[in-house]
Design brief:
Length: 266
């Protein structure tokens, strides 16, 4: 019998949907494949569906939980094997989480914060071995979509610059309490080994991508007009008459270099 926090109900403001199906719990844990010597960080352990199995295999875990009641309960259930950080994962200073060590991050992410949380984790990618997240299927499909695909967009272009991503499998609504109205998916994210980029370059890349997708189905000539002229877009080797959804990460990087040079020139 799986022990749960009696009387605790999923809180809408935290986007809580608790995984409770042993089959899917086991499949996710097998995908993560936790080992005793690894630093395992779970975001949003909730009622410990994954936590319990991860600790059983690795002997320990660090978890980030915003819900005070759940945090207190988790401490009582795992007094020796769980290091609990009671905090909002979106506001967490990751430099203070096992500093200097390689991290394996995972979790069933609340739908209402999934995209901004994924973006915030880019800053710590240099210390990450891999990430395994369960998210809304629609979000995962966008994350892994290739240029030209119907779901390729801003999130795709930003995350694919930093991670190699693989959709592993879908998880049905019935695996959760309460059951969400949408299907979930599990994604594996492995940071891409690349030359270190500056915060200025990262911010400029995000700005170019955001502007490019700001006018869906419009050409770059229109969507990037406030940042770059048609001639400047052409100087990046890009046709200003194409749409953002046809561009690869390297295309956006070329546009970013031109944009940075333009700013530097004043």
């Amino acid at each position: 019998m799986v022990q749960k926090l009696e009387g605790h109900h999923a809180r809408k403001r935290f986007g809580q949907n608790f995984l409770n199906d042993p089959h899917w719990i086991g499949k996710i844990v097998d995908s993560i494949d936790p080992q005793p010597e690894q630093v395992l960080i779970e975001i949003g352990p909730g009622q410990a569906a994954l936590t319990r199995e991860i600790i059983a295999k690795s002997g320990h875990e660090t978890a980030i939980e915003i819900d005070r009641d759940l945090a207190a309960w988790l401490r009582s259930i795992f007094p020796e094997t769980l290091e609990l950080i009671e905090a909002d994962a979106l506001k967490l200073d990751w430099s203070k989480v096992h500093p200097g060590e390689k991290l394996r991050i995972f979790g069933n992410l609340p739908y209402n914060i999934s995209s901004p949380l994924l973006i915030s984790l880019i800053a710590v990618r240099g210390r990450v071995t891999d990430q395994h997240f369960m998210l809304q299927k629609e979000v995962v499909d966008r994350m892994v979509s290739a240029p030209g695909g119907k779901t390729y967009g801003r999130l795709s272009a930003v995350l694919q610059r930093y991670y190699r991503m693989m959709k592993l499998f879908d998880v049905p609504p019935g695996a959760f309490t309460p059951a969400p109205k949408v299907t979930s998916s599990v994604v594996r994210m492995i940071p891409i080994a690349r030359e270190e980029t500056s915060p200025e370059e990262d911010a400029a890349y995000s700005e170019v991508v955001a502007a490019s997708f700001s006018m869906r189905r419009k050409t770059l000539r229109n969507s990037l007009g406030k940042l770059l002229t048609a001639e400047e877009i052409e100087s990046a080797g890009i046709n200003p008459g194409v749409r953002a959804e046809t561009l690869s990460v390297s295309d956006f990087e070329s546009l970013t270099r031109v944009y940075l040079a333009k700013r530097a020139a004043g």
